Request: fold
Amino acid sequence: MTVNRDVTVLQEARVSYCGSAAVLLDAEGPLALATQERIWRLSEMVRELEGVVDTQPGMNSLLVLIDSKTGDLEALAARLRETWPTVPSGRLAGRLIEVGVIYGGEGGQDLPEVAAFHKCTPGDVAKLHAAPEYTIFAPGVTVGFGYLFGMDPRLFTPRRQVPVMRALGGGVSIAGIQSNLGKPYVEGSAKSAPTGWYMIGRAPAVPSAFDFDKNPPNLVSLGDRIRFRVERVEA
Amino acid sequence: MIEILETPPLNTMQDLGRVGYRCHGIGRGGVMDRLALMAGNALLGNDEGEAGLEFQLFPVRLRFNKEIAFALTGAHCDSRLAGRVLPPYWATRARAGDELALSSPRKGMRAYLTVAGGFDVPEVLGSRSTHERDSFGGYHGRALMPGDILASRAHEPFVFRDSAGHGAAPATEAILAARCEDFAEGEAVVRAIPAAEYESFNEESRRALWGTPWKVTARSNRQGYALSGKPLRRSALLEMRSHAIVPGVIQVPPSGQPLIQLAEANSAGGYPKIGVVIEADLWRLGQLPPGSTLRFVWCSLTEARAAEREAEAYLATLRRLAGYCRYNVK
Amino acid sequence: MFTPDEMSLLVACMRRNGVAELEIEQDLEIVRLVGAAGVRPNTPTSPRKSTQTISARAFGVLHLHEAVGAALGAGDIIASVAAGPLRRPVVSPVAGTLIRILGRQDQRVEYGTPLFEIAAP
Reply:
């Protein structure tokens, strides 16, 4: 794995304003599950505070949004700074979901490129990708399975500088240290979208992550885990 | 009952968006010009966040199949009701059969149609905004098409004190934009607060952010505005991870050309953020067409809040005065 | 800032106390009440046949919408009078041509201020 020596991580947590109605906390240290467990706990605590209208974990970060009329931004920032060091880690009882993946082929057209980048075979990439248990760290940019953590660092592949168009629907992709599982394709919606990620496979039986008619509407929550199963590797 | 007779794509029903669903990956969404929507609702006595139709592309023609009071705010289009010209930011009563025709605005970009009582479509996750990418909300989760019929909800019937209706001073006139020391005529000025990665940009880039003009490129839409200008570079490279972002965030991707995330922004991003355009100025971006030139002005939290209060005062006064000019009918 | 009833009460109060002119400013709004003697009479300036003078029906700041020479339809909104951010219409009661603008953009007008002359076709 290439290590970029110019890139650093925070030595201590940073609390900053994101506009005048949101506070962002970026945790210290390298990306870690224990840190994210603390982020989830902090998120739950902060949601109870007066004036807070929403919270959103990122990858070892937390955005807290306030009502600009009733919330006190500076007090919230101070509260986050004080509280963060005291928040404990420790596992949430999450569910485990298994998802079968056809690596390569039509839905994983970037698999050969990723294999070439890592100087191994597509089969090796599939094995490495499916080996660990992935934890749902944070919500993604759409209703779905969110940002997954747990990929083998040997598969670190820098995001594309120039996005490419890729089909939407049950795609398994990687970028940087992250992996992503796309939700099922919805008839009538856009068939593809630009992305800087690499499509390495397709989950033909991916469950629906979100159903408006259900209560709660989401299938998975932060802290739940996903295990990928290699169905086969296509050329 | 409103029937869409003619519309290009990309015109959707929007309100002030959805708050509280970021855990599901759903950002706020909603109108690009929040002030225009709220002003229209104020003129009609609707709840301030009642959904309207956002028109980004023109020409648009629609027919009122039933009598209803409506407001047309936002960009000043050449708008005609039953052939009669409407002033900008105006509310009036349409009679059954009246057609409303809108042409491209001479200034600004987006126009908003609100109706007394609001539109009769179900709320999804607390909002009537259309989430086009995931096809939910608004009018059947999609952009408007010719032939669409939209009903309105019941409300306390009223007549306008003046039969020709009433209007508002447009936001562009009522609320002055920030000034920028050396800005040129025709440049739009928006205020921004430095973001987490601001300090990691080199001094030349930070000066360029505040001191140079930015062109709004053609790759600009409800999701965000792509700008072109002097490339912005970081001097310290902190590892960037996917993190939550809000509308107004100015991202700087590897190209160095800034991207302002707007109404339909993704709720998370992985690029460094140099600043955040203040909420009170987002509507100005919503009214800025591609090809325009933009300047950023540094802004403190205090100034950002004062700007929000100024907008609130405009809307509150408008709502109160408009209330005196509507008479409830028994 | 005042309802029509409050306005009538204020005017009655002014008359009783011999106040000729009263100006009240609050936030963005200014209301100016001028006693009967102060109201300018609605005199047409050129006694031409089939011209009509349109006067203001509200207090406030005048916003012109149309230019001299504009062809008007009956019921067209030719200007507005603003009290704070609210604008009330000045409507042409007849079809015709706008031949004179008697007011100025941003002029403070009151009930009865002559604004436009319209020539019937």
User: Anything to note?
Assistant: Chain B has a mean pLDDT of 96. Helices of chain B lie at 34-44, 171-174, 203-211, 282-286, 301-324. The two ends of chain B are 22 Å apart (CA to CA).
